[in-house]
Design brief:
- The structure holds 2 protein chains of 2 kinds.
- Chain A is built from 11 helices and 7 strands.
- By secondary structure, chain A is α+β, with helices and mostly antiparallel strands.
- Chain A is elongated, with a radius of gyration of 40 Å.
- Chain A starts with a helix and ends in an 8-residue tail after the last strand.
- Chain B is α/β, with parallel strands linked by helices.
- Chain B has 2 domains: 7-128, 3-Layer(aba) Sandwich (Rossmann fold), CATH 3.40.50.2300; 144-202, Arc Repressor Mutant, subunit A (Orthogonal Bundle).
- Chain B has 9 helices and 5 strands.
- Chain B starts with 6 loop residues before the first strand and ends in a 5-residue tail after the last helix.
- The model of chain B has no long low-confidence stretch (mean pLDDT 86).
- Classes of the chains: A alpha+beta, B alpha/beta.
């Protein structure tokens, strides 16, 4: 504190001394002393060391100017004609000091405000990201809700098989003599089908997972394949055929598997919804993957639905825009933000043979932001 | 023929369930034939023995309920036991109205499945007996001349020989002769038997 005080008044003293020496020097060449250097010293003191230092500079300058630069020179006395001249100096010095320090504090307030603003923006951004992650999970849960029937089917199939094999096993064992070979085969089937039911549950849980995004090397073909298996029953129920044309040499991408699963699932479910109308067209969904332009992977989901009119096509990626009676309109906007956070691009275009193609690209390179 | 070992057809696109149901059926002594699709079932040769169909509702292509209609329209009568992972009331009532024996939810109990299958097989056995009986009657009926059929139709309605003769504008003697031929060819011991036979021939189509 005291050290700071000394520093501030030290700065003021140095400025005033410099002004004094320079003015003394200039006085040799000009008949009238130039006092502007003292104003500069006051201004600089107020600017760099604060209001107090500014007034201190005025305080020090005043006697110096009175003694050295106000006639009669080298005397404390002031001639009557020089009184106004001296008074003007003092007033001007005070005003300069005040203006300079006021200006300075305004500037500081402005900088503080800007810093504050920056902090708040980054806080809000973080909150927004959290909300978005939560919303993404919610939409995942919602689309899973739509799939409840499919999930129930997926789980109850192997479970039925387990129960039934178990009952058959008991029958084989209760015969006389018991058929041990058949009983053993039944038990093997129980183990296999039980494992399958467990795998289904693990898959469902992975889709419901509530975790921060984790980017890892991901094989998009694998993601697509898993989803087609998972959505097979849904496709059957909607009498939709799902075909995949996956490039066998697709490079892996650094990506959050669960998020991309969600994007592909959204696109598949959207495609199925687009074909749910009563028209007699064959309901066919095609999922393609290929390498694009050396450094990208492209995934496309094509439906043979009615297609999008240009007006709708512009809005489908807007949040809360939906064409479905029970949709909330977040699927595509979330999908797009997920793809963009992977530095990729998601867009829709008409399919030449009728319907719509939704496709997205993902960069192959490892260098990636955590966004 | 009707006492041959029953064959149970299983159609389910899920291999695990298909295998499990076949395994259970074999363990209790049925012949089981499993198919992954309705096409597979339609193309398979069906033995001339009581049988029934255990059919999954959710199938690729046509669903089980639609296939039930397809079979009915094609005149293929086989009792159906539906199995499904998630049935609802409309589905159940549609299936039952269309003549399904039972509608079971997965995972089902062995007792329920076997009871339904026994019931279905029994229904098929009775149906087959009736069919066989009608087939015999039909072949006898086919032996009758046009005139004899006319006489038979009127006789079973309770008309006397005289009334029949008048209606057909033939003599009573000729009528008696035709009537005798009808009784002989149809192997009917009495008029009451002939009436029953005629009824059976008329209600040929069973559910």
């Amino acid at each position: 504190m005291a050290r700071d005080l000394i520093r501030r008044y030290g700065i003021a003293s140095v400025f005033v001394s410099t002004a004094f020496v320079c003015t003394l020097f200039l006085q040799r060449f000009f008949p009238y002393p130039f006092l502007f250097l003292f104003f500069a010293a006051v201004m600089a003191s107020a600017w760099f060391a604060g209001t107090g230092a500014g007034f201190f500079a005025v305080l020090v300058s005043t006697p110096v100017v009175a003694y050295f630069f106000v006639p009669p020179y080298y005397s404390w006395a002031i001639t009557p004609t020089a009184v106004s001249y001296f008074a003007a100096f003092v007033v001007c010095a005070l005003v300069v000091s005040w203006v300079s320090s006021a200006r300075r504090s305004t500037e500081e307030a402005l900088r503080d405000a800007r810093d504050q603003l920056e902090i708040r923006v980054s806080e809000r951004t973080a909150a927004l990201m959290r909300t978005q992650t939560e919303l993404a999970r919610l939409s995942r849960v919602l689309s899973m809700g739509e799939l409840t029937a499919s999930i129930a089917h997926e789980i109850s199939q192997p479970l039925t098989a387990v129960v039934t094999h178990g009952q058959a096993c008991l029958e084989w064992l209760s015969g006389s003599p018991p058929n041990l070979e058949k009983a053993r085969l039944s038990t093997e089937s129980i183990v296999r089908d039980g494992t399958r039911a467990g795998a289904v549950i693990a898959r469902v849980r992975a889709l419901f997972r509530k975790e921060a995004p984790v980017k890892d090397w991901t094989d998009m073909n694998e993601v697509i394949h898993e989803l087609t298996v998972f959505l097979r029953n849904e496709a059957n129920a909607r009498q939709t055929s799902v075909r995949t044309e996956l490039s066998p040499a697709l490079p892996k991408v650094k990506a959050d598997r669960v998020q991309l699963q969600q994007v592909v699932m959204n696109l598949i479910l959207n495609g199925m919804d687009a074909m749910s109308g009563p028209d007699a067209r064959a309901k066919e969904l095609v999922i393609r993957s290929r390498r694009e332009k050396e450094d990208q992977v492209l995934i496309a989901v094509e439906d043979s639905g009615a297609g999008l009119d240009p007006e709708t096509a512009e809005k489908i990626f807007d949040p809360f825009f939906t064409t479905k009676p029970h949709g909330i309109g977040v699927g595509l906007s979330i999908s797009r933000s997920i793809i963009e956070s992977h530095r990729g691009r998601l867009w829709a275009m008409p399919r030449p043979s009728g319907g719509t193609v939704f496709q997205f690209t993902l960069p192959i390179s490892a260098e990636d932001s955590d966004g | 023929m009707a006492d041959a070992r029953p064959t149970i057809f299983v159609v389910d696109d899920d291999a695990s369930v298909r295998e499990a149901v076949s395994n259970l059926l074999e363990s209790v002594g049925f012949d089981a034939q499993a198919f992954s699709s309705t096409e597979g079932f339609r193309n398979a040769a069906r033995p001339d023995a009581p049988s029934c169909l255990v059919l999954d509702i959710k199938l690729p292509g046509a669903n089980g309920l639609d296939f039930q209609e397809v079979l009915a329209r094609a005149g293929i009568s086989i009792p159906i036991v539906f199995i499904t992972a998630h049935g609802d009331v409309p589905m159940t009532s549609r299936a039952m109205k269309a003549g399904a024996v039972e509608f079971l939810m997965k995972p089902f109990q062995k007792e329920d499945l076997l009871a339904a299958i026994h019931q279905a097989v029994e229904r098929d056995r009775v149906g087959r007996q009736q069919d066989a009986e009608i087939a015999v009657l039909r072949s006898r009926f086919d032996e009758l001349t046009v005139r004899e059929r006319e006489v038979m139709d009127l006789v079973v309605e309770g008309l006397t020989n005289k009334e029949v003769a008048e209606k057909l504008t033939i003599s009573e003697v000729t009528t008696k002769m035709h009537r005798g031929q009808v009784m002989r060819k149809m192997m009917a011991p009495s008029l009451a038997d002939l009436v029953r036979m005629s009824d059976k021939l008329k209600t040929r189509d069973r559910g």
